Amino acid sequence: MEKIIAFLTSLTLETIIPVIITALVGVVIIRAILKLVDRTLSRSKLDRAATGLLKSLAKVVLYVLLALMVADRMGVDVTGVVALASVASLAVSLALQDALSNVIGGFTLLTNKPFKAGDYVEIAGQGGTVQSIDIAYTKLSTPDNKLIFLPNASVVASQIVNYSTAVNRRVDITVTASYDAPIETVKQALLRAADQPQVLADPAPFAGVTNYGDSAIEYVLRFWVGNADYWDAKFAATEAISREFAASGVEMTFPHLNVHLDK
Q: Which of 8, 71, 140, 230 has the maximal Cβ count within 10 Å?
């Protein structure tokens, strides 16, 4: 504590001004370098997720170098600081192992490329569009406009489902109908519900029985659409099923129990 007080009292206007000038000029230069890096990366073939991570790393490195320069201008023995940092690196790495795992996870994601910015993915039960892969987190934007930050380490360790790798995507809609309704009538009603402008003709839509339940028969309707049309087609077909069932006299059942009493 005494050394810190002695150091602060030894500061004069002649020593403070160069330090302030160094810090201000350094910040201006760093901002200029980051803009140059940003322009360079935007012209490269790297995807948006990779550029976000690289820019974050460049920013950290540049500000660490500026801090060392400012410390040197203040008369601090930078060589001793670097040596002390190397000695303390093991302790820091143990204390920050989660953060370091996230950084390593970010590099792993950029190397293996299970997804890129703009892809719609599902990671650890969270679904959304990839916004970026930063130094510690992967950002997902959900359909209801929520921004989810997932640690890169957990992303690497989780099962990743990428819905954007293929051009087309299959829609599966499961419904139940009464045992009283003929199976063929139900299947035809489901196929009519799939007659939507976004639905592809090849492969053709399919409807079939998947299970005989306690109080209803379970059916599935499957059809293919382009990735961009997935939600619109699914919502439209789901609503159309109710109309087609009503028009065909098909009862859409709910769980119930029939009790027979013998006299």
A: 140
The contacts of residue 85 (CB under 8 Å, 6+ apart) are none
Closest C-alpha to 255, from 218, 219, 222, 220: 218
What angle separates helix 78-95 from helix 97-112, to the nearest 10 degrees? 80
Structure-block tokens of residue 118: 């703009």
**Residues forming beta bridges with residue 51, ordered by sequence position:** none
Three-class HEC string of 61-94: HHHHHHHHHHHHHCCCCHHHHHHHHHHHHHHHHH
Quick: pLDDT tens for 202-240: 999 999 999 998 889 999 999 999 988 998 999 999 999
Q: Where are the alpha helices (DSSP H) in the chain?
A: 2-9, 13-43, 48-73, 78-95, 97-112, 152-157, 183-193, 230-248
Separation in Å, CA 104 to CA 58, 138, 156: 16, 13, 10
Dist. CA 238–CA 193, nearest whole Å: 8
CA nearest 237: which of 247, 250, 224, 251?
224
> Which domains does the chain show, CATH number per domain?
2-95 (1.10.287), 106-162 (2.30.30.60), 168-248 (3.30.70.100)
The pTM of this model reads 0.54
Alpha-carbon distance of 102 to 136, in angstroms, equals 5
- Count Cβ atoms below 10 Å from residue 237 Cβ, excluding itself: 24
